[in-house]
Amino acid sequence: MEIMTTRLGKVKARYAVAILALAAGFTPAAGAAEAPASVASDSVEARTIVEKADLVRFPSESFQVDVAITTSSANSGSEVRKYRVLSKGNSNSVVMVTEPASERGQIMLMKGRDLWIFMPDVSQPIRLALSQRLTGQVANGDLARANFAADYHSKLLRSEKIGNDDYHVLELTGVDRGVTYQKVLYWVREKDLWPYKAEFYSLSNRLLKTCKYENFKLMEGKRRPTRLVMEDALRGGEQSILDYGNMKLRDLPDKVFTKDYLKKLE
């Protein structure tokens, strides 16, 4: 019991400390304050843009994808961690650690915006926040939930020309404090609605990190960004690169996204 308690304490510490650096703490949606009237309703055009950009990033159907995250900083070498993500409807997902081998068997389960982690040696799941750090510059919600349209009120700010292309610039404001980031500035290319880059902000409007969507390749019928480059805006030189591969549509019944089923996953 003492060993389990110590392990549980370390796990909680690992997944809790980074929230102070990344964003405001998690508040369940039921207890969150209502959004200000100024952001209570989306612009129809802005919401359509965000919905279509979501579909460029990931299919609306159930799917599986492998993600390798390489994190590096100016003061240390690089570290690679690998995950397998099962997703259904952009609201239910399972994230399984595949490397390092020492952490294999750790699984995150997301239903709606409720998130838990399951440890092989701990009997009870641990509740997590989407905004907490998973590894490097990557928050839990960056892997477990990628549903900008549902998580944010959207507002079209302006058009901006970058190189030879025109881009929509949108402001996304969190529907409550349970979302991964409280505010996002989002650049989407006008001609095909490909996501280009995003800036992620805290509740106090502090820029936390930036993300570039790169290396578009054909995956499951659509060209999608297979590389995301996240850079820390607070500490220069710290970067995480997410490489996506082996995406395939997969029939995922609802029972997959239940606590009792996770131990059956491979």
Q: What overall geometry do the principal axes of the alpha carbons give?
A: globular
How many strand units?
15
CATH architecture: Clam
The computed structural class is alpha+beta
CATH homologous superfamily label: Lipoprotein localisation LolA/LolB/LppX
CATH fold title: outer membrane lipoprotein receptor (LolB), chain A
User: In CATH, what is the class?
Assistant: Mainly Beta
- The number of helices is 5
Quick summary:
This protein has 266 residues and is of the alpha+beta class.
Structure description:
With 266 residues, this protein is α+β, with helices and mostly antiparallel strands. The chain has one domain: Lipoprotein localisation LolA/LolB/LppX (outer membrane lipoprotein receptor (LolB), chain A, Clam), CATH 2.50.20. It contains five helices and 15 strands. The strands form two sheets. It has a 13-stranded antiparallel sheet. A hairpin with a 2-residue loop joins strand 4 and strand 5. The radius of gyration is 18 Å and the shape is globular. 33% of the residues are buried.
Ordered list of secondary-structure elements with their pairings:
Elements: H1 2-16, H2 19-22, H3 44-57, E1 63-73, E2 76-88, E3 92-99, E4 107-111, E5 114-118, E6 126-128, E7 133-135, E8 138-139, H4 140-144, H5 148-151, E9 152-162, E10 165-174, E11 183-189, E12 195-201, E13 207-219, E14 222-232, E15 239-249
Antiparallel strand pairs: 1-2, 1-15, 2-3, 3-4, 4-5, 5-6, 7-8, 9-10, 10-11, 11-12, 12-13, 13-14, 14-15
Keywords:
globular; two-stranded antiparallel sheet; outer membrane lipoprotein receptor (LolB), chain A; alpha+beta; 266 residues; 13-stranded antiparallel beta sheet; 5 helices; 16% helix; single chain; 15 strands; disordered N terminus
